[in-house]
Amino acid sequence: MRKLLTAWLIAALSGPSIGAIADPLAPTGRWSAYSAGHAATPPMGWNSWNAFATDIDEDKILGSAQRIVDSGLAAKGYRYINLDDGWALKRRIPDNHMMMRADKFPSARAGGDTPTFKPFTDRLHAMGLKAGIYSDLGRNTCSEAFSGTDTDLPKGSVLEREVGLYGHIDQDIAVYFSEWGFDYIKVDGCGLRDYGPASARVRSGKFRALVPILDSSAVTRTDIPAIQAMFRQINAALVRNNPDGDYLLSLCIWGAANVRTWGKDYGAVSRTSDDISPAWGRLLVNYDSTVTRSLYAHPGSWNDPDMLFIGAGDFDADHLTEARSHFALWSILNAPLMIGADLRKTPPALMDIFGNADVIALNQDPAGNQATLAYDSSDLQILVKTLASGDKALAIFNRSSGDYDVDLHAAHLKYSDSAPVELIDLWSKQRTSFTGKVRLHVRPRETLIFRAHGTRLLQGGYYLSEQPGSVNPAVDGIVHPTADPTIFRTAAGWAGTNGPGDRPVYAGWGGARADSAPYGQMLNIAGRPFAAGIGILANSRLEVRNHGAQRFTAMVGVDDSATDKTHDVTFAVYGDGKLLATSAPLKWGMAARPLSVAVAGVKLIELVARSAGAANERLPVSWADAALMER
Ligand code: GLA
Quick one: pLDDT band at residue 20, thresholds 50, 70, 90? Predict the structure, then answer.
């Protein structure tokens, strides 16, 4: 025990949060993932960026909003109409009040000397919609860093052009929410990254230097606690200015700062990668940055692989296969469904994609389970998501340029292979049924998407890996954030083939996984494979919401993928903060041990795997077959 405490104290003192010496593995009896704000299901709506970049005005935005209402998309859940970068004119000196581009938003002139977005948000609210705005953690925004022209950029002196939140969080949030009536804010991060003293824009004299605390290519050069502190301050201001709780915070730091691990604790949606573009390769990057992160998304805190780019490039009306894949994948991953097209001109074939109510229903299912991978390879994947009804959503995704015949097994769906499984194709609405397995054909870049109904393989209960929306890796055991090699790297990025290529940058490798060991292998304990379970590193704590189950069961042990064969791990189960059961200390190579724990009446179960091992990275553990049972 002393050894354990020492190891943990050293880790606490050498980690970024000196001073926070509370035992991170101690049970709290409390669900800790973000549930403030208004995102019980993933937000749906429209955002100006992919359609217009900074070239926005009132007509363009209200035109798309009107089409959302007139086409019936609003009734299907598309609600937020979000301004992105480009709305700001300047910060007024000396009172620092934010000024908007009243020449682009004529209704704002009602505010006289202080133009106001209030008539604009009133108009959206009167249409039954909600309104979103954009800002930056730093002094300046992303377009100020990257725009080729300054036509749409903030104007005036160096200080006037500082339109980001830095140093003004409380004042700006009050203006955006209390004064102007917005309901949603997206907060970008370029201001913390792109204004170093040596940068060309600072040397030009037009911008003040801000020593970068966010480095997209080096998580080690990023001040994570400082960034988290800013998001905490933003959250406090949001609470103050939205007493009814009707607000939404969107984190936009692109998977940098290891945010793929902690974004779920700070905002309703959190970007897992850099910007999408209308290119197949970029879709793969953004999708990959989210697809292995099912356990990091829950009602109230969703992974965000960026907005939809349906309507342009590889996803335009001449590429309906790709456009449908984009929509099906974003839906089954519980991504925000933010349309990025000029809806005044969007053809019916694409409007039909946005309006597919059956696909939307998968995304908006109240259980909030992001799909998990039932079959994984570099060119073909099968994703399954358990719906609140117990039905499954199923996507078969052909990433490649070749045709595939796919054998779909009932077991992929965790359904029995001796009872019929019904499938409804959510594009054609065709119904089929199979028992055991069925062969399906998938064309290049196609995603087949179904709703499935069958008989559960596990009778009388659910595997935890079928309910990632109710499982939160509060501590996932990662001590040294490492780039995730499973994310596709594309030449369709910003630099093209200029420079050294698209190198691995997004941290998160070794995170908690459903039906997989943390580094992607299958779950195995002492040579025994398990098709279901949670893989996580040692020195971790999982929070599990119990929706009325009577019993928790699992087979626990050190996973065969561990390279630390020396240290043992103890598995403990807590119910509402009280210890319910502990395993014997288990080492690599020892057989899986059964745990069976009564949890009747318990609201929050916590699963703690402790070890004195210094390097959790070498000690993956398995909560194999972990399940909540009715009896
Ligand atoms: C960043 C964000 C984008 C968009 C632009 C605006 O690149 O990731 O989504 O908001 O800034 O400049």
Answer: low
